[in-house]
Amino acid sequence: MQDELVPSWLPRLAMHGGPRFLQIADALQAALVDGSLKPGDRLPPQRLLAAQLDVDLTTITRAYDEARRRNLLEGRGARGTYVAAPKVELNPILDLSMNTPPPPDGVDFDDMMKQGLSQVLMRADSELLMTYHLGGGSDADRKAGATWLAPMFGQLDPGQLVVCPGAQAAIAASILALTEPGDVILAEPMTYPGLRTAATQFGRHIVPVEADRHGMVPEMLEKACRRRQARLVYLNPTLQNPTAITMPESRRKELASVARRCAVRIVEDDPYWLLAEAPPPPIATFAPERVVYISTLSKCLTPGLRVAFVLVRDPQERERFLAALRSFALMVGPLSAALATQWILDGSAGGLMEGVRKEARLRHRMARDILSGRYSGAGDGLHVWLELPAYWTPSQLARAADSEGIAVTPAGAFATGSDSVNAIRISLGSIKDRGRLQAGLQRVSHLLARLPESFSAAVV
C-alpha cells in the first residue's frame, strides 16, 4: 500500500486502537469536525479503500455503516457515498470538563439495561420498588456492596455498609455527622469541588494542607491538625481529582498514623480505585476505626446509577451518619438500588467496569500522543491534569477553548486556598465518540502551542 494513496483524513490504523471499523468511523468524524472533510465530499469506493488500508471489505462496510448511523454519510446510488449535510449542528460543544466514564466498546448498554430491569421486575414486587424504604439500603443491597468492595477489603460484614444516593450525598452526610458548624476540614490544595460546596453550605471551613507528588504531606497534616484543632480530613488518594496522583502505600500508612495520633477522622473518597492499575490498599485498611470509606458506581459504571457504598465500621458513628443522611436524602431510589444490586450479583457490573477501564486506557494513550510532553495522566482513570506554559493562565485558556467550542476546567475550580496552580483538568470520558475526542484534544494542543491573543512582549 502506498501511503500517498490513503485519504489525507485517515490516520494509520493502530494495532491496539480498538476495532478497525470504529477507528475508520472515528477518523471520518474527526475530519468533519476539523474541516478536513466537508458536506458533499465524495468518499472512496469501499473496495478501493479496503485495498488502500489492507483490510477486508467487511471492515470498510462496517465503518461506512457506523458512519451512516451517526448521520455522517449518505449513499447516492451508483454515484457513490458522500459526506452528508448535517441534520443537526455538526460541531456542538466538545465537553472535556465533566468526569464521566467513557462508553465502553462492545458493550450493548441498552440490552444490559433491559436485561437487568427484566431480572429486577421478575424477582421483586413492583410496588416495593415504588415506595419508601428504610435509609441505608436493604440487606441485599448491602450484600452487593460488600461484593463490590471485596477487591479493596476482602470479606466485609455487610452490616457495616450504608447505601447512599451517590458520593456527594455521602460526603455531605459525613460532614454533618463528624463535624460541627464552624469546624475546619483539612484537604489538599487541589481537591474535589463537591467537598467545598457541601462544607460552605453547612458552615464549615476548608483549610488546605501542603501536598507533593505523592499527595498530602503527613508532617504538614499533623501540624495542621494540632494548630487548627481539626476533626475531619478529606482525601481522594487514588487517581486524585484533579491532579491524577495516586498515593503510594507508604504515604497512606503515614497519613493513617497521623489520624490515630491526632484523633481525627478521614473521609476517604475513592471513586477511581477499581479503574486504576494495581492501586495500593485503601487508607481504611490501615486505620479502619478512623476512616469513612466511600465508593461510588457513578464514576466507574454510569453517572445515572446514583448509588454509593459507604463503609463505616463504628456502630455509633454509623447511626450518626444515617441520621445525617436522612436529613436531606431519605433513601436511594429503590429501582436504582435494585438495578445496581442485580448487575453486581450477576456479573454485569464487573463486565461493564472492565469495558470502561479498557476504553479509558485507550483514551489516555490518545491524549498522551496528542498532548505529548504536557501529558501528566496516570494512564488510567477519567482525567488528565495538564500544566500550562507560562504564557497561558487557566482562565485564559478556558476562555480561548470555549471560543473554539471546547469546555475544560481551570485549576481555580478545585482550589481550597488562595494559591494558584497553572493547570487545567481535561476529562476523557464525556465525549462519546473517539473521533470527536481526538479533535477536541488536537484543538487544545494547538491552543497550547500559540500565544494568547492578549499576550504582548515587554518593551525595554
From TrEMBL:
<keyword id="KW-0804">Transcription</keyword>
<dbReference type="InterPro" id="IPR015421">
    <property type="entry name" value="PyrdxlP-dep_Trfase_major"/>
</dbReference>
<comment type="similarity">
    <text>In the C-terminal section; belongs to the class-I pyridoxal-phosphate-dependent aminotransferase family.</text>
</comment>
<dbReference type="Pfam" id="PF00155">
    <property type="entry name" value="Aminotran_1_2"/>
</dbReference>
<keyword id="KW-0805">Transcription regulation</keyword>
<dbReference type="InterPro" id="IPR051446">
    <property type="entry name" value="HTH_trans_reg/aminotransferase"/>
</dbReference>
<protein>
    <submittedName>
        <fullName>GntR family transcriptional regulator</fullName>
    </submittedName>
</protein>
<dbReference type="GO" id="GO:0003677">
    <property type="term" value="F:DNA binding"/>
</dbReference>
<dbReference type="InterPro" id="IPR004839">
    <property type="entry name" value="Aminotransferase_I/II_large"/>
</dbReference>
<dbReference type="InterPro" id="IPR015424">
    <property type="entry name" value="PyrdxlP-dep_Trfase"/>
</dbReference>
<keyword id="KW-0663">Pyridoxal phosphate</keyword>
<dbReference type="InterPro" id="IPR036388">
    <property type="entry name" value="WH-like_DNA-bd_sf"/>
</dbReference>
<dbReference type="InterPro" id="IPR000524">
    <property type="entry name" value="Tscrpt_reg_HTH_GntR"/>
</dbReference>
<dbReference type="Pfam" id="PF00392">
    <property type="entry name" value="GntR"/>
</dbReference>
<keyword id="KW-0238">DNA-binding</keyword>
<dbReference type="InterPro" id="IPR036390">
    <property type="entry name" value="WH_DNA-bd_sf"/>
</dbReference>
<dbReference type="GO" id="GO:0030170">
    <property type="term" value="F:pyridoxal phosphate binding"/>
</dbReference>
<dbReference type="GO" id="GO:0003700">
    <property type="term" value="F:DNA-binding transcription factor activity"/>
</dbReference>
<feature type="domain" description="HTH gntR-type">
    <location>
        <begin position="18"/>
        <end position="86"/>
    </location>
</feature>
